[in-house]
Amino acid sequence: IRLFDAEGGYRNEHIVHDTDIQRVVNDLFAAGALGLEIGGQRLINTSSIRCAGPTILVNHRPITVNPITIKAVGQPLILKGALEMIQNELKAFGVRLEIEEMENLALTKYTR
Protein backbone atom coordinates (compact mmCIF):
# COMPACT_ATOMS: atom_id res chain seq x y z
CA ILE A 1 0.00 0.00 0.00
CA ARG A 2 1.32 3.42 -0.90
CA LEU A 3 -0.13 6.71 0.35
CA PHE A 4 0.68 9.87 -1.64
CA ASP A 5 -0.04 13.48 -0.73
CA ALA A 6 -2.30 15.26 -3.21
CA GLU A 7 -0.36 16.42 -6.24
CA GLY A 8 0.51 20.07 -5.77
CA GLY A 9 -1.37 19.99 -2.46
CA TYR A 10 -0.27 22.35 0.24
CA ARG A 11 -3.32 22.54 2.48
CA ASN A 12 -3.73 20.42 5.57
CA GLU A 13 -6.35 18.13 4.01
CA HIS A 14 -4.11 17.40 1.00
CA ILE A 15 -1.35 15.81 3.11
CA VAL A 16 -1.23 12.31 4.58
CA HIS A 17 -1.30 12.54 8.38
CA ASP A 18 -0.63 10.11 11.19
CA THR A 19 -4.37 9.71 11.72
CA ASP A 20 -4.81 8.58 8.10
CA ILE A 21 -2.10 5.96 8.59
CA GLN A 22 -3.65 4.86 11.87
CA ARG A 23 -7.02 4.38 10.16
CA VAL A 24 -5.44 2.28 7.41
CA VAL A 25 -3.60 0.17 10.00
CA ASN A 26 -6.72 -0.29 12.14
CA ASP A 27 -8.78 -1.29 9.08
CA LEU A 28 -6.13 -3.82 8.04
CA PHE A 29 -5.91 -5.37 11.51
CA ALA A 30 -9.71 -5.49 11.72
CA ALA A 31 -9.69 -7.34 8.39
CA GLY A 32 -7.34 -9.98 9.78
CA ALA A 33 -3.87 -8.75 8.84
CA LEU A 34 -1.29 -11.05 10.40
CA GLY A 35 1.50 -8.48 10.38
CA LEU A 36 2.19 -4.90 9.27
CA GLU A 37 5.15 -2.72 8.45
CA ILE A 38 5.17 1.03 7.81
CA GLY A 39 8.15 2.66 6.15
CA GLY A 40 10.41 -0.23 7.16
CA GLN A 41 9.19 -0.24 10.77
CA ARG A 42 7.47 -3.42 11.94
CA LEU A 43 4.36 -2.82 14.03
CA ILE A 44 3.84 -4.53 17.36
CA ASN A 45 1.11 -4.00 19.94
CA THR A 46 2.96 -1.07 21.56
CA SER A 47 3.99 0.69 18.32
CA SER A 48 3.27 4.37 17.90
CA ILE A 49 2.39 6.31 14.76
CA ARG A 50 2.51 10.07 15.12
CA CYS A 51 3.42 13.35 13.48
CA ALA A 52 6.22 15.50 14.84
CA GLY A 53 5.97 18.66 12.80
CA PRO A 54 6.31 17.69 9.13
CA THR A 55 7.79 14.27 10.02
CA ILE A 56 5.90 11.04 10.57
CA LEU A 57 7.34 8.79 13.24
CA VAL A 58 6.68 5.07 13.56
CA ASN A 59 8.16 3.41 16.65
CA HIS A 60 9.73 6.82 17.38
CA ARG A 61 11.70 6.68 14.10
CA PRO A 62 11.13 8.93 11.08
CA ILE A 63 9.85 7.24 7.94
CA THR A 64 10.01 8.19 4.28
CA VAL A 65 6.90 10.00 3.05
CA ASN A 66 5.28 10.61 -0.31
CA PRO A 67 4.80 7.82 -0.64
CA ILE A 68 4.30 6.23 2.74
CA THR A 69 4.68 2.50 2.21
CA ILE A 70 2.66 0.02 4.24
CA LYS A 71 3.16 -3.73 3.92
CA ALA A 72 0.46 -6.08 5.18
CA VAL A 73 0.38 -9.87 5.36
CA GLY A 74 -3.01 -11.54 5.14
CA GLN A 75 -5.81 -12.46 2.75
CA PRO A 76 -5.35 -10.00 -0.15
CA LEU A 77 -8.99 -9.66 -1.21
CA ILE A 78 -10.19 -9.14 2.35
CA LEU A 79 -7.46 -6.61 3.15
CA LYS A 80 -8.09 -4.73 -0.10
CA GLY A 81 -11.84 -4.63 0.56
CA ALA A 82 -11.25 -3.23 4.04
CA LEU A 83 -9.53 -0.18 2.54
CA GLU A 84 -12.21 0.81 0.03
CA MET A 85 -13.95 3.31 2.32
CA ILE A 86 -10.84 5.20 3.40
CA GLN A 87 -9.48 5.05 -0.15
CA ASN A 88 -12.58 6.85 -1.42
CA GLU A 89 -12.53 9.38 1.43
CA LEU A 90 -8.88 10.28 0.80
CA LYS A 91 -9.47 10.45 -2.95
CA ALA A 92 -11.94 13.30 -2.37
CA PHE A 93 -8.97 15.38 -1.12
CA GLY A 94 -6.61 14.25 -3.88
CA VAL A 95 -4.70 11.87 -1.59
CA ARG A 96 -3.93 8.61 -3.38
CA LEU A 97 -3.98 5.21 -1.75
CA GLU A 98 -2.55 2.61 -4.14
CA ILE A 99 -2.72 -1.10 -3.46
CA GLU A 100 -0.40 -3.65 -5.00
CA GLU A 101 -1.01 -7.34 -4.42
CA MET A 102 2.08 -9.51 -4.02
CA GLU A 103 2.44 -13.27 -3.96
CA ASN A 104 5.33 -13.29 -1.48
CA LEU A 105 6.01 -10.57 1.03
CA ALA A 106 8.50 -10.46 3.89
CA LEU A 107 8.17 -8.00 6.74
CA THR A 108 11.10 -6.44 8.57
CA LYS A 109 11.66 -7.77 12.07
CA TYR A 110 10.94 -5.41 14.93
CA THR A 111 13.97 -3.62 16.39
CA ARG A 112 14.10 -1.20 19.28
Question: What topology emerges from the helices and strands here?
Answer:
Blueprint: E1 2-4, H1 18-30, E2 35-38, E3 41-42, E4 49-52, E5 55-58, E6 61-62, E7 68-73, H2 76-82, H3 84-91, E8 96-98
Antiparallel strand pairs: 1-7, 1-8, 2-3, 2-7, 4-5, 5-6
Main features:
112 residues, alpha+beta, five-stranded antiparallel beta sheet, three-stranded antiparallel beta sheet, 3 helices, 25% helix, globular
Description:
It contains 3 helices and 8 strands; from the N terminus they run E-H-E-E-E-E-E-E-H-H-E. By secondary structure, the protein is an alpha+beta fold. The two termini are 24 Å apart. The strands form 2 sheets. The chain has a 5-stranded antiparallel β-sheet. A 3-stranded antiparallel β-sheet has the order 4-5-6, covered by helices on one side. It has helices at 18-30, 76-82, 84-91; strands at residues 2-4, 35-38, 41-42, 49-52, 55-58, 61-62, 68-73, 96-98. Strand 2 and strand 3 form a beta hairpin. The chain is globular and about 35 Å long. Helix content is 25%, strand content 25%.
